[in-house]
Amino acid sequence: MKSHSNLTFPIRILLGSFSFFILFASSFAQDRKEIESIRFEIIKEIDDTNLLLKETSLNKKTLLSDLNILERQINNRKKLLDQIQKEIKLIDSSIEVISKEKLQSEVRIDSLKIQYRLVLQAMYRDRMMKDPIVAVLSSESLGTSFLKTNYYNRLKQFVIHKMDDINVQKDKLIVGIERLNTEKASKTEILKEVENQSQLLTNEQDKQKVMIASLKEDETALKEALKNQKIDRERMNVAIENIINSSFDLDAKKIVSIDEKNFQNLKGKLMWPVSGGIISIPYGKQKHPTIKNLFISNNGIDIRAPRKSEVHLVTSGKVVAVTDMAGYGKMIIMDHNEYYTVYSKLSIVNVVQGEDLEKGHLLGILDEKNNLSELHFEIWNNNKTLNPEIWLQ
């Protein structure tokens, strides 16, 4: 039986590498799905920003937040380019591996053909195909003859079956390569289109900077406007601190879900207060883009949203104040047990002081000014402001 071992062992070796391709294909699909998911999220934000930019174009007055939105849009375009390039690299890698696997399958088929010919030649030499009766009678015993016949028949069927299997796999590989080449061509076209859009957006940013530079010519009026904004902001900060420091009915039972019992555990999980909004002015201290040595401080974030958008509660809490603030319109302050959220620049308020509200409750409607709506949103921990951006999901 030595010849049997010599024939079947190399066949098992040649067929063993199929498991590698299966593992690779699974890994490729998983990576591709993850990258596509990120790409779709970026595209959604770009689409939302495009809607806001269209509203901005209706406003003859250029705002600092307009420039921030344009810069954010360009950054998203760059992220989108990176994601598409990652997809193309992943596809290239897949094509390379599949091409190698295709070549290996061809080698396996050639090897099986050689092995199959050896089987046929051996069977011909033993006259098994030509005259099986003679072969049986010429054997040393009937047992030996039957074993020999059974061995060749089984080996023949084994080789035929495996060769058919490899041909099927080879066809799948060819189809896979064609599909990946098609996807690569598609991604290349998308990449070109995104690059074109990115260039157009860069041009728009340059135009916006020129407009802001023209405003710089009237620097005195701009400084006066910023001074008034600073005064309004300081007044609001004092009002918020006074409200936080005031005493309230702590015995009133709040509607707080089990998952949201502790506000500090919700960092990165808070729902957005408005839909389709993007951050137009970030938290903290920022250098003014047109006036040298001038810095703007923001105790929260400004979220540009579609005009007259609904404002919703980010998590369960109690209404502790509803008031009007100069420069900030109607303002709502919510208590979340040592943490507070502030919603301002509203035109309509749907809540009253003392109400216990659940997550997602409609607080009111954003005001519209200069064809734009913008929510000013803050988070406080006792008397300290926090960066809301890292708290939102």
Q: What's the SSE pattern?
A: HHHHHHEEEEEEEEEEEE
What gyration radius follows from the Cα positions, in whole Å?
36 Å
Number of helices: 6
Ranges where pLDDT stays below 50 over 5 or more residues in a row are: 1-21, 247-260
Question: Strand-residue fraction?
Answer: 15-25%
Mean pLDDT: 76
The number of strands is 12
Topology overview:
Blueprint: H1 2-15, H2 18-57, H3 64-125, H4 132-138, H5 142-216, H6 219-245, E1 278-281, E2 284-287, E3 295-298, E4 301-305, E5 310-312, E6 317-325, E7 329-335, E8 339-349, E9 356-357, E10 362-366, E11 373-381, E12 384-386
Antiparallel strand pairs: 1-4, 2-3, 4-11, 5-10, 6-7, 6-9, 7-8, 8-10, 8-11, 11-12
Helix pairs in contact: 1-3, 1-5, 2-3, 3-5, 4-5
Structure, explained:
The protein is α+β, with helices and mostly antiparallel strands and 393 residues long. The protein has two domains: 2-215, no CATH class; 222-390, Glucose Permease (Domain IIA) (Distorted Sandwich), CATH 2.70.70. The protein is built from six helices and twelve strands. The strands form two sheets. Strands 1, 4, 5, 6, 7, 8, 9, 10, 11 and 12 form a ten-stranded antiparallel sheet that branches. Strands 2-3 form a two-stranded antiparallel ribbon. Strand 7 and strand 8 (339-349) form a beta hairpin. The longest helix is centred in the middle third of the chain and has 75 residues, at 142-216. The protein is elongated and about 105 Å long. Mean pLDDT is 76; it is low at 1-21 and 247-260.
